[in-house]
Write the structure tokens for this entry.
Amino acid sequence: MTLDELEVLDGKVSDEAQKVIDEAKKECSYGFEMPIMNEIIKSSEKTGTLKWTHKSIRSCDYCDKEYDYHTYPRSSRNHTKGEKNYNKPIYYSGIKFNEGFVTFQGDGDMCSECCIKQKVKERLIDYIIDNDLKIQIMKNDYRVSKYLKDDIRTCYSCNEDMLESQMGKEPTMMGDGFYPSKCPHCGAESKPFGKSHGVTNRFGMIKNPAAKEEVQKTKELVDTYNQNKDKNDHLYFYQNSHTDSTFGVNEEKWTNGNTKVIQFNINSKKFTVGYFYKEKSQQFKELLTSFGYIEVEDK
């Protein structure tokens, strides 16, 4: 049924049928001319994420790429040149949004060409950010997500719910990062080969530290600095893997370690300058100072 037909029944049907009508009304309220984009936003609000993956697809509903097969290049005893080879389907470069754990070969939302031509990713991202929707956007080169999905776990010891962002972190066995382990209520820890906290399908949202204006402007300053420099003289911007609120700039080249240029914490509003950059980090210092940051001595 069309939306117009469903709206005639609005408020006149059972609770179960009304849910279907409400979902259809909500989906259309996003206002995109491509129905698939409305569906993507609706599913993103349910899961709390907007993500995509590039995959090979069999056809595209938005252009002339049709479900088809390659043909035999030459004749043989079993086939004639030009006949379709049903063992060799034609695949196109495509994209699938919000794909779940169950995947289907050849299935996608549209081809890559249509996605680029219609600026689908960019328009979805703009809509989410500009309308302040509580959705975590997959990392991309266009815009930074305003929110991060914060999964809810249940402690195996005290049975209390807790956000992952509230949990104490422990280093991974490989030493290449940290994972949420300690319950903020009772202190019970989740171990790789022991008891672990329960996983739920529920989640909350926290603001993305990397989306703060001073963080983005610092990153832009690094990009500008690198434009006219030799690769060996480049700087790189990073976010601390243990403390999400800490960001910094280091030298790209390795000389018994990466030389620190500047490091700052968005919660404490303080920054430190590397010893060898005391006189060379004026632009970064001026930027952070303009946002109310205070310089402290490096310990």
